Every structure is written in C-alpha cells, then in structure tokens.
C-alpha cells in the first residue's frame, strides 16, 4: 500500500493556505506522486461572487513585551490568522487582545482562524494563540510585527482520472489546503492517493471511470465544477469526499442529500461487512464542507470521515495524531466499495415518460393485487411493483445493486425482471 504516513509527514508542517508558496510547493509535491492534471484560476476570474484571495506568505510575525519576544508567529502555521493584514506598531494589552484568537474549549490549543480566506475584501491583522497566553498578558504596551509578502493569487486544483470502459465517472474528493494540520483534509488526500494507486495497479480493467480531485476547501470545488466544461461535468455521476480519516476515532459515512448514489450504498455495505467501528448519518448530520458544492451541481456527494474528533481545527491535529491502521481501514473500505460497484451491471434508460407496460407488446406490468377484491397481500410483488415504478424516474445510469437495495429485493430477481426490459430495448445494460 502507498506510504500514506510519508506524505503526511512531508506536507503537514507546511502553511497550506489557499494561495501561498507552501500551497504551490504542495501542488508540485503531489504532481510527483500521481500524474495529476493542474487547473489554474487567476485572481481576475470572478465567479459567482467568489474572490480568489491574494497569494499570501508570512515573512515575520512576533509579539514583544519589555524588549523580549513573547510570541513567535512563525512557530506554527496556525499562529498567524490566515490572510492576516500586515501590521507594525505598539498597542495596549486591551487592543492586542482584540486581535488574539483562542480556542474556548482548550487552554493550550492554537485554533484555525480561516474566515478571511473567503472574505479577502475584509481583512484584519491577528494571531491565533493558546487561551492561557491571552489570559496571562500583563498590563502594558506591546510591540507587534506582522510582515507579509503578497501578490495576485492563482487558485490551483488537481485531478487525476483512471479511464474505465464507461465514460460515467465516480469522483473522490479531498482538501489539499488547511495549514499545519494533518487529519483535516490532508489525511483524506493520503487515503485518496493510496486508493488510486491501488486502482491503477488493478489486474482487471475498470468498468466505471474514477477521478481524484484535490482542491482547496469550498472555493476550490466551486471553481473546479463551475469552470469544468459542461460535457465533462455531465459525465460525473456521483462521489465521496474523503475528509478526516487518520484519527483513532470511528469511521463516519455521511450520505448524500437524497441517498441516490451507488457508491455510497456500496460503501455502506462494505462498512457493514467489516468489523470497523463506524456510524452513518444523513446529509449535513456531521459535516458541511465541499459536499454541498457538488450537490449544487447535481452530483450526489457523500463523505467518509472520522468526524467528530476533539482535535478539529486546532494545532492538536498534527502528524502524531495519525494512525496508520485507521488510514488503511479507510482505503480497504473504499476498495471494497469500488469492487462491489465494478461487479454490478449498470442500466441506462432508453425512453422518456411512462410506458404502457400492460400492452401485449411489452407485458411488463406488475399487478400487486387489490385487497378489495380478495387478493392476498404479496410483499414480493409489492416490491417488484415498486421497482417497475422506479425505472421511469431514473435520471442517470444506475447500478442494479442500488436498485435492489432501494426496493428490498434479491439482486437475482431484479436482474431477471430488468432483462425483460432490455429485451424490449427500453433499457441498456452495461
């Protein structure tokens, strides 16, 4: 299996804010890992009101008191508020505290303050500090320096596609940004790389196409999907965001908004077959990250994570937190889900509207019976009728496994019934 810990050790310490020298270095690193395609969006690209932030690097950052540096803003990537404005001057303790951000849950953690990355037109200067530092400041004047280097930013997104027999594409996404943390985003990148490294070495050709998309959170997915050519985006069926997968907490599968994707059903089955600690939840029950961006473009997007975990959005989310066994569990579950998907036939509808299935030309109508006329309830026929009613509503290629799960019938029975639809050229089985 690909060495996920090496990738995490190499990239976790970098100040991977959305547009920065360290993010550019991360892009270069990843392109040596897999043959990614790089998408670039310049600062002038105004899309849906989103603003690409400037390229931002911290040159110097410190707080001095009575001639001594009491806080070094370069000691951790989170120590300076992301996209902080530059500042140099003397301030009172009260003024300084207005520019210090701390985690109210923990006395010794440095929080991740990211809001300015999405509001680059409204910026302040500031540090992120442990609460005990904020509370322990003595009365007096403090000398503050935040020196930054800035230029117009270029938003960068990577994708890598394994072409299968079918053009329909299953996407796995992960966030490549988030400065100085390991689990939030970067562990998903490591798992995604290991998954695709295994898939490209698979002995059997793939049926579906698969794509790994690595983007800065929210804004990266918005530009990627919004600027992707329509015909390419239309081939993307569904996907799974890989988010926080290295912590020693249980796996969490969050379903897409309408639970309508084959990959999430296959992943749920894979988790049930395993002995991994896990739980499932409805859309937005745990996370609200890039999933809602993909859903807005009509692409069902589930997520696999280990959320919640107590270190979230703090410097406690570090390389030491990463558990190799937890990372490997995620890769194995995803591979199992892909194999389930690959083993199932897929149907494409070849008609619009509703067919008169009782017509002798088709003879596909399922009569569930009528209790008023003395017909005994027949649960199997009721479910078969549900399958019959579902087929006209399909808007995308759909796996037989998913249909069988939806209606609660054995796969063999579903296959037999759909074969009759195929004989009448109403559906294509691929």
Instruction: Summarize the amount of helix as a percent range.
Output: 25-40%
Alpha plus pi helix count: 13
Radius of gyration, Cα only, in angstroms?
Answer: 26 Å
Total number of β-strand segments?
Answer: 17
- State mean pLDDT (0 to 100 scale): 95
Element-level helix/strand string? HHEEEEHEEHEEEHEHHEEHEHEHEHEHHE
Secondary-structure blueprint of this entry?
Layout lengths: L3 H8 L9 H13 L3 E6 L12 E11 L2 E5 L14 E6 H5 L2 E2 L25 E2 L2 H5 L5 E11 L2 E9 L6 E7 L10 H15 L8 E7 L3 H9 L2 H4 L2 E7 L8 E4 L7 H12 L4 E4 L9 H6 L4 E5 L18 H20 L2 E4 L29 H12 L7 E2 H8 L3 H13 L3 E3 L1
Parallel strand pairs: 5-6, 9-10, 9-11, 11-14, 12-13
Antiparallel strand pairs: 1-8, 2-3, 2-7, 4-7, 8-10, 12-14, 15-16, 15-17
Helix pairs in contact: 1-5, 5-10, 8-10, 11-12
List keywords for this structure.
alpha/beta; 13 helices; single chain; Glucose Oxidase, domain 1; 430 residues; 8-stranded mixed β-sheet; 30% helix
Describe what you observe in this structure.
The protein has about 425 residues and is α/β, with parallel strands linked by helices. The chain has helices at about 5-10, 20-35, 95, 130-135, 185-200, 220-225, 230-235, 260-275, 290-295, 325-345, 380-390, 400-405, 410-425, and strands at about 35-40, 55-65, 70, 85-90, 100, 125-130, 140-150, 155-160, 170-175, 210-215, 235-240, 250-255, 280, 300-305, 345-350, 400, 425-430. An 8-stranded mixed β-sheet has the order 1-8-10-9-11-14-12-13, with helices on both faces. Strands 3-2-7-4 form a 4-stranded antiparallel β-sheet. The relative contact order is 0.12.
